[in-house]
């Protein structure tokens, strides 16, 4: 029996690559995406991706999107209550697992496992412990196109905000910076790749500093205007 999987979708390269891996597993059926959105700004937290782009990503990969609205700041109990609602909704829709694009942060993995204990949904970590230098190059070679939408200036120069995630970027990374940004050095938004039915178009706008991070505003093209889709926006 195929595992029916919900995918935690950040809008970035790791969750997109996780979708690609899952879709190459004959025993898995990906049934939807789960995305938390900061309701104050209408964006994915940390990645700072606009909701319009996330919705366009869902259309491009051909999956229903479950948007989980969160306030900012968001107390942990509010976050966990919202996630429980999404889990219950997933169970009603026949999901059996939730997949995450985590690579090697043990505390994050342990937290996700604890969140799902006793819910009826099992966690999956399809790209866990993959070597990040090799993985980053493989993503680019496979056609993943992404933009750095958030940079931690304590770990990586502000000048990298808005850069393309490509071989040139990887070649210029200073020592000690993980090629996939797994230590929070940077976050991305994916616009194209083997998991997309069609590429998305967006332009890099203003780069601003907020809450100790540098954010590059990724502005969706007019072609990304909303169309009817399965996004539930927390309903």
Descriptive tags:
single chain, 235 residues, 6 helices
Q: What can you see in these coordinates?
A:
With 235 residues, the chain is of the alpha/beta class. Helices cover 28% and strands 26% of the residues. The strands form two sheets. The chain has a five-stranded parallel β-sheet, sandwiched between helices. A hairpin with a 2-residue loop joins strand 8 and strand 9. The chain is globular. The two termini are 29 Å apart.
Low-confidence stretches: 227-235
Element order, helices and strands? EHEHEHEHEHEHEEE
Strand content: 25-35%
Judged by helices, strands and strand pairing, the structural class is: alpha/beta
Q: How many β-strands, per DSSP? A: 9
Helix content: 25-40%
N→C terminal distance = 29 Å
Widest sheet: strand ordering: 3-2-1-4-5
The number of helical segments is 6
| Major sheet size, sense and barrel closure | 5 strands, parallel
Radius of gyration: 17 Å
Quick one: overall form?
Answer: globular
Q: What is the overall pLDDT average?
A: 93
Write the layout of secondary structure elements.
Elements: E1 3-8, H1 13-23, E2 28-38, H2 51-61, E3 65-70, H3 76-92, E4 97-99, H4 106-116, E5 122-124, H5 132-141, E6 145-151, H6 167-172, E7 186-192, E8 202-210, E9 213-220
Brief rundown of the structure:
The chain is α/β, with parallel strands linked by helices and 235 residues long.
């Amino acid at each position: 029996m195929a595992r029916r999987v919900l995918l935690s979708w950040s809008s970035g390269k790791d969750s997109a690559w996780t979708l690609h891996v899952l879709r190459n597993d004959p025993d898995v059926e990906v049934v939807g995406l789960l995305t938390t959105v900061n309701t104050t700004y209408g964006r994915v937290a940390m990645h700072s991706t606009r909701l319009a782009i996330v919705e366009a990503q869902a259309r491009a990969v051909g999956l229903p999107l479950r948007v989980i609205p969160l306030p900012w700041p968001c107390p942990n109990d509010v976050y966990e209550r919202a996630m429980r609602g999404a889990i219950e909704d997933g169970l009603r829709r026949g999901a059996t697992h939730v997949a995450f694009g985590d690579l090697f942060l043990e505390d994050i993995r342990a937290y996700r496992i604890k969140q799902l204990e006793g819910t009826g949904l099992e966690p999956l970590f399809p790209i866990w412990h993959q070597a990040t230098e090799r993985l980053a190059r493989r993503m680019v070679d496979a056609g993943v196109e992404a933009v750095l939408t958030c940079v931690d200036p304590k770990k990586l120069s502000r000048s990298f905000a808005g850069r393309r995630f490509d071989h040139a970027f990887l070649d210029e990374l200073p020592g000690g910076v993980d090629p996939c940004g797994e230590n929070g050095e940077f976050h991305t938004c994916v616009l194209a790749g083997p998991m997309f039915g069609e590429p998305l178009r967006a332009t890099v706008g203003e780069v601003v500093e907020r809450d100790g991070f540098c954010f590059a505003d990724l502005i969706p093209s007019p072609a990304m205007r909303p169309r009817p889709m399965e996004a539930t926006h927390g309903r």
